[in-house]
Design a protein that fits this description.
This protein is α+β, with helices and mostly antiparallel strands. It is built from six helices and six strands. The strands form two sheets. Strands 1-6-5-4 form a four-stranded antiparallel beta sheet. A two-stranded antiparallel ribbon has the order 2-3. A hairpin with a 4-residue loop joins strand 2 and strand 3.
């Protein structure tokens, strides 16, 4: 839908505080670790002392594996934003030309911005897709395979979607026919509701 056709809509702002998003992410670590690690332990480590299991899970065996972990995180953050862009572009008239990537310098936070308004449902799908592809699917694979590295990957990339969860929380109760437009330079969006 083009911006010119929004004349019959009322515009409301929805923003999140990036500082609060980072604090939320820190608090999110504990339940996500428990939610992901407890089934992993029950499947793969129940014959092991829990403290030894945790020590083995957190142990970094070498500098090269630590550097590889940093590289995976950097690439994963870029892939996270790319997933937003690819998903949202499926719902836009101009496709990927409506997607812009950048970095919010004040928090060094990368972002993906969709320049076209989307229906609430479409926006939510695009907002949650990175946590599904980089968090939920990997944790299912980790539970199946017993791979601790994939477990840690799933934990990190689920928690890194904290800002996305906060934005979805701001809009999920809206009428699904309403429109959502990303803010071009802040962490948030505008809701366009049909005038009564």
């Amino acid at each position: 839908m083009e911006m010119e056709s929004l004349s019959g809509y009322v515009k409301e702002e929805r923003f999140i505080d990036l500082y609060k998003a980072n604090i939320f992410a820190l608090f999110l670590f504990i339940p996500i670790i428990l939610l992901y690690t407890l089934p992993f332990y029950l499947i793969w480590g129940r014959n092991e002392n829990p403290f030894v299991f945790i020590k083995n899970m957190l142990e970094i065996t070498s500098l090269s594996s630590a550097l590889l972990g940093v590289l995976i995180v950097v690439i994963g953050v870029m892939v996270h934003e790319l997933i937003h862009g690819i998903t949202w572009s499926c719902y836009t008239k101009k496709g990927f030309r409506s997607i812009k990537f950048g970095v919010l310098l004040k928090m060094l936070t990368p972002y993906c911005h969709c320049r076209e308004p989307l229906r609430v449902r479409q926006y939510i799908i695009g907002a949650l897709m990175p946590s599904i592809i980089l968090g939920i699917i990997p944790i299912i694979y980790a539970w199946y395979s017993g791979n601790i590295h994939i477990l840690l990957f799933a934990i990190f990339f689920t928690v890194s979607a904290a800002g996305d969860f906060m934005i979805v929380h701001l809009i999920w109760r809206e009428d699904m026919r309403s429109l959502v437009l990303d803010h071009p330079s802040e962490a948030g969006c505008f809701i366009y509701k049909k005038e009564d």
